Amino acid sequence: MLDSLKLCMHITRRNWIVYKKDLIANISPTVADPALVLVSLGLGLGSFITNVEGMTYMQFLAPGLTVATALFTSFFESSYGFYVRMTFENVYKAMLTTPIGVKEVVLGEMIWVGLKGAVMAVGVAIVLALFGLMVNPWLIPALASVGFLVALPCGAMGLLSSAMVNNMNQFQTVYSFLIAPLYFLSGIFFPISQMATPVRIVAEFFPLIHGVRLAQALFWQRGIGEAFLYSGSILVIQSVILCIFAYYKIKKKLIA
Amino acid sequence: MIIAKSLKKSFGDFHAVNGIDLEVKKGECFGLLGPNGAGKSTFINMTYGTVRRTGGELTVFGFDPNTQSRDIKGRLGVVTQDNALDESLTVLENMQIYCAFIGVPKHERTKRINDLLEYMNLAHKRDALIQTLSGGMKRRLVFVRALLGKPELLILDEPTTGLDPAVRHLLWGKVRELHQNGTTIVLTTHYMHEAEVLCDRLVILNQGNVAAEGSPQKMIHDHAPGYVGIFNLPDADKIKKIISTSDAYVFHEDTSGVYLRTQALSNLTAFHSDHGLLPLQIRPSNLEDVFLKLTGKELSIDA
Question: Residue B11 and residue A256: Cβ atoms within 8 Å?
Fold first, then answer.
């Protein structure tokens, strides 16, 4: 068990070593995208919207952006990133000749995307806090847990799609029909209560919606305990279920 | 070290390995020879559990690869068919990551890596990026990677495919040295000569079955003794006519030429002196001829 966990961490570390080689290229989208959204929607569109749930549009938008960062960083890492490692670079083929098994590969990758989600969420939160969009900036470290908890289920979805696509192009379909809806319909851009009832019911199953709730609780400093109890637990359960699915699917890919 | 009994692996209707029996003994260099698709890699992958057998028995170090692969993998090193090195990292970084994977204690890592790089004539490339290495250097580095854990069993899955003769000979020398130092080696190849040079014992696989087994010399002696003359294809009819009255020859014709195998060298030189037909080449028979006889096909033809 301890050996297994150690091996997982070695995989996580391996990904970090490769990642940091091209840090600027790797980190740009995660930094630039939320900044663009903040400027265009927050400042631009926000000037027409003066009051959302008793705050400015910028204030409303901010928590969702941290969570969106965790979504994108984890999904792209575990879809395109993982797929390339698996299919073109044969990284796992070589790894599996060592004491590493598929369980360690999947768990190691999940820890990696989780940590990445945590760091990115904190990074974005720091910037947003500098804009004065966080009621209590001392809560920034807590956003690491939100980034981690969002990255796990979203990363597992990425792994699942990696196991199911026949080529890289097909990730675009996954993006259009799964990731984009998560992004646009999880209450980042407008309050969830504004959505039509059927959409609201479906959205309740999205991991992202719970991540948004957690981030909002932290950013606005209200109902933090309840949010973690409810949305936090749901994210944990979703992570476990999706990771188990991902494990079995990936296993079929790596072990013939 | 490896014992397989009626070992089978099917992918749907396709039987990649179709009930083979074989044993690899401690300290020997054992070869698996066969054309592409013969089941060599499937067998290799079954030994450490990345392909799960669908029938028969298989043990490696006494462990079952389907359920105890970690116990097995801790004791073997594999030169994989694909290099699968991290191109954006340096030689040293690549090897350090693998040291961690196989559990080499931290304080021993640098020395072990340096020693093996030295052994494979790669010490000067220690800090070079993988993407700057030549194909032969990458291959040598994969050998280093496979040896990091001081394996009892070294698996070489087509170790020299696509390499130039100089690198191939260098690697053969290293394999011999490792063998002499007591490492058990399992080698797959579709180069007859490689198997003949390196292996104590080998099996020829064909379409998932063992077609022949034994030492290279014994196989040649049993199945295709003598000498082979290779003639120009246009002379085929003439040659057929000449040998039609004799049973001293084994005749084979394909797109690359006419192959005549016979016990005595003089039978071949006579073609020149008596009939004015000069062979392109005369050579002692080898594993290629064994394979040809057993399967009726050339080994190099892709399945």
Answer: yes
